[in-house]
Design brief:
Largest sheet: none
Number of strands: 0
Shape: elongated
Radius of gyration: 60 Å
Distance between the termini: 144 Å
Structural class: mainly alpha
Helix content: over 70%
């Protein structure tokens, strides 16, 4: 390709196919070196050959395998290089890029635009604004996440308070029910005591009347009616009514 029309065309476009091919070949060599270096380390670690006599045997074996792969790879890459130079980067005979005044003017214009200091300054301003917007967006995301965590914590606290209030209401209802039962029990006991006391009082009055020597006079006065009774008899009658 050297000295051909294709080379001249690519040079006019500031391109170098051979440089691209060389960089590709160098990249393949670097990848092969890294691969076998990693292979050697892993083999030494797994077989535990560091510092032993077997270390040399492993190195020789890996070198032999690499030479075989390197030889085959060089052959194939050489074929690939020839194919690229003769087919991929080849241009038809007599081909040339038109060079007109308009195209040259456009080229200069594009170069001027690419080297415009005002445009570079505006681009820098836009980049700075974009960076600031990114930072603000990140801060807003952090604040939003904090608010979401706070909201979740508040909801959890509200649920706990509601459960506590429900338990309190249930406990209050049970306490009121127990108080009512206790009050009813005490009232029942007091009524039983009052009834027992009234019965005892009546029994005492009856016994006193039976043992009273004036019970016949009182009975006769009762039969005669209140107009024939004395004041003492009326007072005694009223007292008996209160005790009954």
């Amino acid at each position: 390709m050297e000295g051909s029309e294709s080379e001249a065309v690519f040079e006019s476009l500031n391109l170098n196919p051979q440089l691209f091919i060389n960089e590709t070949l160098n990249t393949v060599d670097d990848l092969l070196d890294d691969a076998f270096h990693f292979f050697h380390q892993e083999a030494s670690t797994l077989l535990k050959t560091d510092g032993t006599s077997r270390s040399q045997f492993i190195s020789e074996g890996i070198a032999y395998i690499r030479d075989m792969i390197q030889s085959d790879l060089d052959t194939r890459l050489g074929m690939w290089e020839k194919y690229c130079l003769h087919h991929v980067f080849a241009v038809p005979e007599g081909f040339s890029l038109p060079q007109t005044k308009e195209s040259q003017a456009e080229t200069f214009t594009c170069q001027d635009l690419l080297s415009d200091p005002d445009l570079d300054a505006q681009l820098d301003i836009l980049r700075n604004r974009l960076t600031m917007v990114g930072k603000e967006s990140s801060e807003l995301n952090h604040e939003l996440q904090a608010l979401e965590r706070q909201s979740a914590s508040s909801d959890h606290c509200a649920e706990l308070v509601s459960e506590a209030l429900l338990l309190y209401d249930q406990a209050s209802t049970q306490d009121m029910y127990q108080d009512m039962l206790s009050t009813m029990s005490e009232l029942h006991e007091k009524m039983e005591k009052l009834r027992t006391r009234r019965v005892e009082n009546l029994e005492c009055i009856r016994a006193r009347r039976i043992n009273d020597p004036n019970r016949d006079l009182l009975a006769s006065n009762y039969r005669k009616g209140l107009p024939n009774a004395t004041v003492e008899d009326i007072q005694e009658f009223m007292a008996d009514l209160k005790h009954m």
